[in-house]
Sequence to fold (360 residues):
Amino acid sequence: MSRAFNFCAGPATLPEPVLRQARDEMLDWRGTGMSVMEMSHRSDEFVAIAEEAEQDLRDLAGISDDYAVLFMQGGASSQFSTVPLNLLGDKTSADYINTGIWSKKAIAEARRYADVNVAASSENTGFTTVPDPARWATRPDAAYLHYTPNETIGGLEFGFVPETAGVPLVADMSSTLLSRPLDVSKFGLIYAGAQKNIGPSGLVVVIIRKDLLGKARKETPTMMNYQVIADNDSMYNTPATYSWYLAGLVFKWLKAQGGVQAMGDINARKARKLYEFIDNSEFYANPIDPSARSWMNVPFTLADDALNGAFLKGADARGLLNLKGHRSVGGMRASLYNAMPEAGVDALINYMAEFAKEQG
Ligand SMILES: *Cc1c(COP(=O)(O)O)cnc(C)c1O
Fold:
């Protein structure tokens, strides 16, 4: 069985060379006679793996020493509560931008702790647009502003980084971190669940400006206290060692591809090809405002929903996997993360053209 093109939104396809290296190192990591999975997280070997992964991530994303990089657990969703618990400080309110399902989940969780001000929402367009920042009703006394730069389910992406006039900007970058260059210095905090562009699920990478550490509410669980995690180099308890190692292999692979600049060029090209094909077709459609289309997640519908089953069956038979859209939106969705080769997008477009033709 050869490798298929896996368009899953997450857990998502990983670079094949990374999986091969993990396989080769599985039983005996570099002559230690052990798998990475079996190593003490306090061992020199694992600490070296962990530090190298962090350094590679810092190099790739251009993260300065003003920021701590944390390798936490519980996925991106745990950050929905970790963020308010840590960042509210002596304030009570926080601003949120609502652009889809992941924003909504973050908002619902924050409401347990904060007076949440939804400063803007695109719910009225069915989340097919990004609200015009000139009209955001932000509050100057907000502890932070939270947004979701890429809505993985809706396929909606911000084409800009919001200006917040000093209010710390917090971003759920689960499905877009490392997909292109980014000016980290504009952010107070970035978090990203690993299973899209970084590695296995469960791991969540947090990049936090150091002046935002140390403000956790006193009832904050220790495991969710950024200061504690930072002080302990993300090893307050046993970290997700194997996931951390695998993320490190992905970072090395990204560096070998030319880093986020090169990746961004490839990703832009992949997305452009697919959207162009969809836009030029009478049979397929994408509902998102062209200025806010995601590079990473491309939802599309067929002219007739009754054909969805046949489309997916034919795709599976060609090794084009997991194209079914999220249960909440239906249709199809192709996720084009870093590890999806351009050849995968070409194969998808060829199949889509063939299928549309067959249907007349
Ligand atoms: C996948 C995803 C999440 C949820 O990640 P978990 O690791 O399952 O908690 C949250 N936000 C965004 C934008 C995502 O893409």
About this structure: The chain has nine helices and 14 strands.
